[in-house]
């Protein structure tokens, strides 16, 4: 099946659907200007100070580093928090919302991204499931209780030469221990999953009400395949948009070898033809 035929099939699914599930991995943010951490070199381009220490993304996204080197870890997360706050979501988010406006059951988003870009793009927070948590939410690093709170008051100042936080470390209001983002890290047994579990429960309740679901997956890679697997579990009408890893079994959906915005624009033009 050539690309034109795949586009025609995708458009027919979109027009027939009564609900849309948007599933998104890290590639969703690239067109908004967010860095691609693909491989150590991609990570070090964004954080040259960490290259000098030979620290990878997996090293930094680790609760052990938060415990042993909180200023270094918060330098990394503080930089990301500030970056995500400044980033303007690309036009593809608005396209997705517009397509779903005509669907009786509307849309939900399921994402492994912790950047809060769906909320910033005016998606309803009550219809977003963040399976790895959110950088905009904090928890106690010592898990003195299961309270979560907003990172709104955290205004990080980071020395980019050392990737260390120079402003005050965020603290747990209950016990005074260092606070951490409510993000699922590698080897993380202290992540408080309650918020994500509640989101996913609402998502599954919504899915049970949709009869003709279409899934649009954007920028979800194979390294951590959580999003890809969730998309496939909700086939057979999955539209997988990915410039590299676009393959999908024909009984589950179709793949478009495109970047996120490029693929969405292609579909949008076909929808309006």
Q: Would you spell out the secondary-structure blueprint of this structure?
A:
Elements: H1 3-16, E1 19-24, H2 27-30, H3 39-46, H4 48-52, H5 57-60, H6 63-68, H7 70-86, H8 92-100, E2 107-111, H9 117-120, E3 128-130, E4 133-140, E5 149-150, E6 158-159, E7 164-165, E8 179-183, H10 194-207, E9 213-218, H11 226-233, E10 238-241, E11 253-256, H12 260-272
Parallel strand pairs: 1-2, 1-9, 2-3, 9-10, 10-11
Antiparallel strand pairs: 4-5, 4-8, 6-7
Helix pairs in contact: 1-12
Features:
273 residues, alpha/beta, Rossmann fold, 6-stranded parallel beta sheet, 3-stranded antiparallel beta sheet, 11 strands, 39% helix
Structural description of this entry:
It is a single chain. The chain is of the alpha/beta class and 273 residues long. It has a single domain (3-272), classed as Rossmann fold (3-Layer(aba) Sandwich), CATH 3.40.50. The chain has twelve helices and eleven strands. The chain has helices at 3-16, 27-30, 39-46, 48-52, 57-60, 63-68, 70-86, 92-100, 117-120, 194-207, 226-233, 260-272, and strands at residues 19-24, 107-111, 128-130, 133-140, 149-150, 158-159, 164-165, 179-183, 213-218, 238-241, 253-256. A six-stranded parallel sheet has the order 3-2-1-9-10-11, with helices on both faces. The protein has a three-stranded antiparallel sheet with strand order 5-4-8, covered by helices on one side. Strands 6-7 form a two-stranded antiparallel sheet. Helix 1 (3-16) crosses helix 12. The longest helix is centred in the first third of the chain and has 17 residues, at 70-86.
